[in-house]
Amino acid sequence: MERLGLNRSGYFGERIDIDITLEACAAAARRNGWKVGSFPAGALGLVALHRPAPAGSASAPRVYLSTGMHGDEPAGPVAARRLLEEDLWPAAEIWLLPCLNPDGIRANTRENAGGIDINRDYRHFRSQEARGHVEWLGHQPPFDLTLLLHEDWESHGFYCYELNPDRRPSLAEVMIEEVRPVCPIDGSETIDGRPSRHPGILRPEEWPDFDPAERAEWPEALWLSMNQTRLNYTLEAPSDWPLAVRVEALVRTVRAAMERCCAEAVR
Length: 267
Description:
- It is globular and about 45 Å long.
- The mean pLDDT is 93.
- With 267 residues, it is an alpha/beta fold.
- Helix 5 runs antiparallel to helix 7.
- Strand 3, helix 2 and strand 4 form a beta-alpha-beta unit.
- It has seven helices and ten strands.
- The chain has one domain (18-265): Zn peptidases (Aminopeptidase), CATH 3.40.630.10.
């Protein structure tokens, strides 16, 4: 397995047709009994999918997944489509947003059509996408687990960023070991400017490891961890590897995390 060497100052790998991908996501969701809706972000109408808890599963954990935040990260929406089409979910109630930035995907740009990085906009809400997203989240219950599917064109392998302020049992090691057979793990001592004390895992030593009030730009993960969940993972596939490898890594990670979360819930 070799990296492609295509990325120079940005993502130059494989691209997808996001409109076809979203249509396939919605079709698979309907076939399998999910509720298909959208939430307002101007005229965008971003897709929102909901799988109710299985009958007789009163203790089913609530799990939230999002992807397609950055338009130069196509593996997440493809992984969402595959997960929906294969329909191999554990006993959980699930909310899934398969693409938060379709305009960016169409243009292969990190930012939205207005040039805003949505994943830095969860404090000041300049973008229609972030405003509509948080309005929609305000109508949802707290989540037991949130998984945010991303890619990193600069990384040397897969890694995840954990926000776990209550020090609940971590899912990070389980996810990394599930990915290892199919995708390189980033073993760098520093990843994305932060120290990594375990290959492929970033964890703040304190919660938070900065004062949110002093941070000018908030990502989705920070907003969720302050408002909607106490266990959050940002999953970063290495986008200098083939799209199929990145999709497989994200699918395996989601399944491993959800299965462990559901197993912990029934103990």
